[in-house]
Amino acid sequence: MTRKYTIKDIAKIAGVSKGTVDRVLHKRGKVSQKALERVNAVLNEIDYKPNLLARSLKNTKEFHICVVLPNYKEDAFWLPSYKGILEAIHEFASFGVRIEAFFFKPNNIESFIDVNQKVLELSPNAVLLTPLFYKETVKIVNNYSASNIIVSKFNNQLEIENTKNFVGQDLFQSGRIAASLMKIITPKNCNIAIIHIDEDYNNSIHMQEKEKGFRTYFSELKNTNYRLSTFSSKNTDLQNTLNDILKSSKNLTGIFVTTSKTYMVAEIIKEKNIKIIGYDLLDQNIEYLKKNLISFLIHQNPKKQVFLGLTYLVEHLLFNKEIPSKSLIPIDIINAENLELYLQ
User: Fold this and answer.
1) pLDDT (tens digit, 9 = 90+) per residue, 59-100?
2) Mean pLDDT over residues 166-192, rounded?
3) Overall pTM surpassing 0.85 (yes/no)
4) 311-329 pLDDT tens trace
5) Does 57 have pLDDT greater than 60?
6) Which helix (H) or strand (E) holds 332?
7) What is the average pLDDT score of the chain?
8) How far apart are CA 17 and CA 39, in angstroms?
9) 210: closest CA among 239, 235, 177?
10) What is the DSSP string of 258-277?
11) Which of 44, 160, 226, 324 is in the most buried spot, having the most CB atoms within 10 Å?
12) Residues of CATH 3.40.50.2300 domain(s) within the chain?
């Protein structure tokens, strides 16, 4: 990594005072020609680029931002999100911004509530939240708002009052894109299964939006008779669920998995000639994509979602910069042919 030089470092190398370096950098006050030449020589040698954000920072107050998300050690989908948090911590630490991550158990409402209560008691300036559970999130957000804590969301696009921002994908549109891909790779008028894994469907808006987009696309097609069926299953019961689906759907040729657990379906039906479309670049998903046992993955870029959400909050706290109400990131379609571009 390129070393970051401080004014103190530059002054020591140039053999001048820190005040002299400051005057040269900011072009203010008097500096002798000899000192100017020394400082500029050092700046050229180290290829010094001033951090404009740091230069404009006048507020010395420390800010505290908490990120609430599922535990990446229990669900690998969230590991890139954690890496995005670490990147933001490194990026903004020198500006008096403290960023902390708080993890709840995936698909566990009680854990979600408990962790958010702990964060509320810390009274941070802002919270970046993964709102997996709709009903519980509404109450939690209202509690934060009552304590004058700013709340932004990522990954799950819920229309909730008292939140500043959402960063993520248009989930309805991602469902439509999955449907358009499925139409290309399956025969006309076939049976297609939509599978939700390890989620409370009635309380999970993100899954509902994906399915809605998927179904809407097929409903708009003319002169076709695709038959769509929806199934929900726990991870532990997926084998039985798929066996039942295969028995009841003799002409099943496509499966749309609405979560990152696509690889579980691919493993169970790998001997069948059934096309699978799902989400996210988990290692297991990548393995089956390379083998063409998964046809397409939709990349949701959770690392970018978190980093962008935190950047908006930091800039708002430091400079009172307006936070956009919605920041939609591109919906990337990955197959075996372009996979390497996303792994670099």
Assistant:
1) 557 899 999 999 999 999 999 999 999 999 988 887 889 999
2) 95
3) no
4) 999 999 988 899 999 999 9
5) no
6) strand 332-334
7) 90
8) 10
9) 177
10) -SSTHHHHHHHTTTS--EEE
11) 226
12) 63-169+302-329, 171-299
Q: Measured between alpha carbons, how far is residue 298 from residues 58, 254, 283 in Å?
A: 42, 16, 14
CATH, range 63-169+302-329: 3.40.50.2300
| Residue 94 in tokens | 């020198």
| Tally of CB atoms within 10 A around 273 | 6
Backbone angles phi, psi at 155, to 5 degrees: 80, -45
For domain 171-299, the question of CATH label 3.10.560.10 is answered with: no
**Gap between the Cα atoms of 149 and 147, Å rounded:** 5
Place of tokens 């990446």: 72
Dist CA 61 CA 77 (whole Å):
35
Cα separation, 69 vs 81, whole angstroms: 8
Q: Which helix (H) or strand (E) holds 141?
A: helix 134-146
DSSP lists the bridge partners of residue 128 as: 67, 152
Contact status, residue 129 vs residue 68, Cβ threshold 8 Å: yes
The contacts found for 3-7 with CB under 8 angstroms, 24 or more apart, are 3/46, 5/46, 5/48
Q: Provide the token pair at 8.
A: 């103190």
pLDDT tens digits along 226-284: 999 999 998 889 999 999 999 888 789 999 999 999 999 999 999 899 999 999 999 99
